Structure formats: C-alpha cells, structure tokens
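Lecture 7, part B: from sequences to assemblies.

Below are the input chains for today's worked example.
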Amino acid sequence: MAQVVASHRGPVTGTANKAKKRRPFLLDLYSTAVGKKYAMGISGIAMMGFVLFHMIGNLKMYAGAADLDHYAHFLQTLLYPLAPKGVVLWILRGGLVAMLFLHLHAAWSLTMLNRKARPVKYQSARDYQIANFASRTMRLSGLVILAFLVWHLLDLTFGVVNSEVGNKVLYPGDTEEVKAVYVSVIASFERVPVALFYIVANILLGIHLFHGAWSIFQSFGWNNPRFNKWRRAFATGFAAVVVVGNVSFPIAVMAGVIS
Amino acid sequence: MSNTIKNITLKIWRQDGPAAKGHFETHKIDEITDEASFLEMLDILNDRLVTDGKEAVVFDHDCREGICGTCSLMIDGQAHGPQRGTATCQLHMRKFNDGDSITIEPWRASAFPIIKDLMVDRSAFDRIIESGGYITAETGGAPDANLIPIPKPIADAAMDSAECIGCGACVAACPNGAANLFTAAKVAHLNRLPQGQAERYSRVESMVETMDDYFGSCTNHGECEAACPKEISIDVIALMHKDYRKAKFSNRKDLARS
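Predicted structure of the full complex, as structure tokens:
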C-alpha cells in the first residue's frame, strides 16, 4: 500500500464495512445520495404533472372569460358534493407543497454533499465536454423559478399584489357567482414588467425541465437501448410544450389577442 | 520521420504535501519530438530539473500503456487531456502545437487528497471495492471452461464495464466530485454476470453506501463518460440506480440479503 493520507471526511484506510445502522426504511433510503435523487425524481414528476395540467387548463383563456372562470370553479369544487368545496383542491395543493419542499431539501443537501466532495476547486479553467447549459444552471434556474412561484401565488392566488383577485361574477344561466379569474389574469399581464418576469421565469422553467425531465430516467435507472433515444426527445418536447403554452398567455394579453 | 513541437509552456501544480499550500510553477520546453508521450515529456522535464539540482515533479504512472489506471493529470481542464478515450500515458505531444501553453493540475476531490504535486491518494476507491467488488467462488479444482453459459451480449456488456481501470478520471471530471461512474462500472461488471448474482443486491447496497462516505452525488452531467479513458457509458450508472432501487424496495427475503 502506498502512502496513506487522511482526508477530512475520515480515514481513507481501514475497512469499509461498517456496522449497519437501523433506521426507518424511507429515512434510510433518503440518507443516501442515490435515494435523494429518487426523491428529486418523484417530486419532479409530481411537479411536472402540475405544470403540464396547469398550462393545459389555462388554455381555456382562449375560449373566453366564461370558460376559464368555470374551469377555475370546477377546480374549486372538485369532487363536490362527495367532498366539501375547496377541500380536494387544498389536498392537491398540500401535496404539491410537500413535493416542492422535498425537491428543495434534496437539492440543498446534495449541493452541500457535492461542495464537501470538492472543497478545493480546480485552480485553472475547466473545459467541459458534455455538461450543457441546462445541467450547469439547474440551481440558478430553480431559484428563479422559486422566486417566480412566490410572486405568482401572491399575484393570482392570494391577490396580495393584484386587486382583481377575489372578485366574483355571475354568468347568465348560472345559479351562483364564480371567481372572476379571467379578469385578474388580464390585469396581471397588462403590467409589462410582470409579463416579462413571467416570460423569463417560464423560459428558465423550460431549461430546468430540459435537463430535469431527462435526468429522471437516469436517476431511476430507466435505461434501455430500445427507448434511450426517446428520453432526450421526451424532455425537449415536454419542456417546449410547457414553455410555448405558458409564454403564449402574457404575449396574447400584451398583443391584445385576449382582453 | 518525426517532427518537433517547439516552445511549450507548462504550468504545473506544485504542492509539497497534503496540507501544504500549492502553486503553479512555469517551465519551458524549447523543443520536443511529437512522438514523445505526455509522461515522457514530463520525464524529460524532470531529468532537467534534477540535473539543475531542483526537485522533480511528482506524478503517478505505471504501465504507460493505458491499462493500469495509475496515471492521472488534469490537462488544460480535461481529465487525461484533450484526447478522447485515452489515459494520459497514451496522449502524445503531436496533439499539441508550437507555442502551446499547457496547464497541469492534480485530480481534485476531498476523497483524493494530494500526496505531493500531481499525485493523489485514490484509496477511497479501494474502500468501495472492498465493500462489494467481489464474488463468492467455490474452492477446489479448476472448473471446466464454459461451465456457466453466458450469452455473448451479456459477456460483452460485462466486459465493457470491466474495462474500468479505476484511474479516477470520472471523479476528477465530475463537477460534483461524484464516483458514480466508477462504482457503477464495478457494480455492472459483476451484476451482469451469472457469477455475480449471489451478492447482486447486497453488493449494490454496500458499494453505493460506501461511495456516499467519500464522494459527491450524480447530477447526470455526463462529464465522467467524456473523460473516461475506457469510454464507459453512463448507462452503467442507470443500471446501478436500478439495482439499488430493487435492493431497497424488493422483498428482502427474496433477495437473500445478508
């Protein structure tokens, strides 16, 4: 054995077989980096499902105010009268918040692990061969998306920065008033800086998905020569569909296509 | 008929010991044959340094034919230098041009502490191998050849992973300092073969968990595959992740875990 040098993460020599710690199964799994990547993937898939259906639902905007507002009302009263109004929606929202928290926690702890794995950086410039812009900027794009998410909720969900949120409207033929979602969307996007922030955040979301949606396959071990070439196509296609759909809304409002 | 490369400027990392502060040192190579390997170029430089009464640059090397995994070096920001699918020992000066400036650094990872100059301690890899890189084999007389049928595609795939020479370029190239390609190559090598099935799931569990003690995490950049002198595909990483998932989620009795 050559010269032995201790690293700060414990002695490099000695036996690797430690006594097994017994922990609850999921915690045990989550304690490893590979397990955290599963958590990243699962929470990523949940949020991918959300952004896709959020975009598809919002396409109702092009069908007019009544369609969008009735769709919003449908979400509010999901499974009513089996469940009280709003309950199912809040359960779904709770699930998404949990998934977001899991995604953030895994990302944070993996980043810390990676920092510890290379405390002294390369002192000369790296020449990356394959790593692309998307994979290199996951943290940055993720943080911008997070900031956007906070703004977006304050804007169109809680109405803190949008006075139109909370207004109700009675459509002909309806027996009760529904929330006037359409009007608040228009009011939001008529503010040019808001629309621009929305567009930038969604393009970054697309970049995040371009790497993330592909990365899921590797993290879960879904690798097969029969479908490997479709993995990148899926990630690109998914990112493109979400971005094009979402970005079309503020552009349509600013261009006056919907008003 | 060999040509010569002129006016090479080398920026070499010098560091007296693991805890010492390192720095880049500049050396000039006025003329060198393009048939010299990169390591021979360093040999020539070292001859000169020793003749001048200076200390030679310390770097790892052994077989110099690309099969032992001892040589390393981050050359101009790429593990094993600019030539794909080769270790530093198989890189030749003909890949460079007159007047080039070449920066040489050691692998950098907390699991690979610098011993001196460009030499690092890669025994963290030994810890991973110890924890699962073996099979249970019967003792006694040598078995007949081809006693265990192995389909050709399986044998080929296992060989592709077994090519790993454990040089550590994957860790060095990884922006996260992860060892997933190394560990996965070793896991895939044995897990693909019939002889490796007895420990298939306990192996992947132990090796992945030992890897966690020393290295960073995989974020699927793919830099390891580009740096690997044996061009091992990140497909093996997916196989490792799949087997780890199975090891964790399948019925433990069915998997005959220890």
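Note for the exam: DSSP finds nine helices and two strands in chain A. Keep this in mind when comparing with the next example.
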